[in-house]
Amino acid sequence: MSAGGDGGWREVAAGVFQRRYDPVDVSVGAIVGPAGVVIVDTRNNPREGEEILRDAEEFGVPVVAAVNTHAHYDHSFGNQAFAARGIPIYGHAGIAAHYERFEGPRLTRVQADPGREPDKDWAGVHLTPPTVPVSAVTVLTAGGREIELQPLPPGHTDTDLAVRVPDAAVWLLGDVIEQSGAPMFGSGSYPLRWGAALRGLLERIGPADVIVPGHGEVVDRAFVAEQARLLEEVAAMVRRAIEAGTPVDDVLPPDELAAYWPDWMLRSALRAGSGSEMQK
Ligand SMILES: [Zn+2]
Fold this sequence. Notes:
Helix content: 25-40%
Order of helices and strands: EEEEHEHHEHEEEEEHEHHH
Distance between the termini: 34 Å
Shape: globular
Low-confidence stretches: none
Strand content: 15-25%
Largest sheet: 7 strands, mixed
CATH class: Alpha Beta
Bound molecules: zinc ion
Number of strands: 12
CATH architecture: 4-Layer Sandwich
Number of domains: 1
CATH topology: Metallo-beta-lactamase, Chain A
Number of helices: 8
Strand order of the largest sheet: 1-2-3-4-5-6-7
Structural class: alpha/beta
């Protein structure tokens, strides 16, 4: 984890900015048009969401919308700061259900006993799902700028949403792509399907398009293609283990994958892949 909140807004394509905030080096996007700015992802809690709103004042136009790339806390727990100002929040239509299943119970546990996850600052968080659920490709015009929102098949989560700004050839993809570390198999991830979801997205990404990952520096199409290939190798490993009936702890990951992911994360992919009907 490097960079962080002191780096300021960095223009990664015409009128599209990335800011990397600590904690967790999370990417926040700003799509700036003549009449307003659209913020992509809202950080870890309402206080951090407020900080984004303050930092966006330097664009000199109001914040007219927010978008969540997926349901995870570091990308959406700041939502209530935007909702409090009446700013519409766009996000995958599955976020409310994902909150109920994963984020809600975890938040309740941590709020009751903050010592469980002392690095989280969630005392003031009220889960705030998107006010505008997105269930099909949607083109919105906000701040005078056209923005395309594309719900993705299950991958990093079942709430992944690709944000594309066609006039700037830039994509903000959240954690279906990570640059600062290996893509994370966490709560509610779909290791059997993630690579294929990326492969489908690649068909629409141009060779010179700019891609903003959920964590880390901007990457190009070739980086996405390589991450898709590695994720497909993970899916193949999980399938082999299921077919052979190999217990998760006995699987020997291929060297290439063992070099890219920590062992515990590959085991969690194996558990998620073999343990759930949803994956098939
Ligand atoms: Zn993240």
